[in-house]
Amino acid sequence: MRSDQLKPTTLDLFADAEVQQPATSQQIGEQSLVLRGFALPWLERLLPALDEVLLAAPFRQMITPGGFTMSVGLSSCGTLGWTTDRTGYRYTHTDPQTAQPWPDMPTVFLELAQAAALAAGFGDFMPDSCLINRYVPGAKMSLHQDKNERDYSAPIVSVSLGLPAIFLFGGHARSDKSQRVPLFHGDIVVWGGVDRLRYHGILPLKDGQHSRLGAQRINFTFRTAG
Ligand code: MD3
Ligand code: FE
């Protein structure tokens, strides 16, 4: 038997994951966990569903209340979508660009978010919003807190796809020192409880080409917003 016929399951996993390790988890805060490679087995269902959402609600660059254009392209699906314009940050039931309801959250999105939350110890996660962020090389997200949700008791689940990025995980004050956590294609991070209001951000995306997604990073952020 040829050596490349051994352990076909492991080889298949690595073919899609490239240099990714098999699923492992890493605690980055008291109630924050990185699930390495957790989304990889879901990709073949996830990407077509993403394409369908983006047909109805394409990525667009939004304006902050301060008048700056965000470098990250945004879309949403689910009952509520996060938006920003000159008047402020908020969740809306409709896409301001089409005045139509945001696209439904695909079943596979919800199933993946719930499976990841459960794996991190949060049962009964019921997200009503999935913000979809697109980073091209140079795009970043400055340190901020997520404070537009109605209640902070639900966790947040974040799925990283495409090019790697450095995630900044800070404290409860903007000036607290941040830890840098690299996030790779297929990684999922789950935050809850005492870590829910920590400052966080993404360093400018480095140039590169991802075999499946090209020169971009896509992040899904599942939240219970309403
Ligand atoms: C950490 N997105 O959309 S993951 C955001 O990768 C956002 O696109 C980043 O920050 C991204 O608001 C980071 C999501 C995330 C969301 C909420 C958090 C990280 C968090 C709450 C507390 C700590
Ligand atoms: Fe955030």
TrEMBL record:
One of its GO terms (molecular function) is broad specificity oxidative DNA demethylase activity. Residues 126-226 form the Fe2OG dioxygenase domain. This is Alpha-ketoglutarate-dependent dioxygenase AlkB. Its EC number is 1.14.11.33. GO terms for cellular component: cytoplasm. Binds 1 Fe(2+) ion per subunit. The gene is alkB. Its cofactor is Fe(2+).
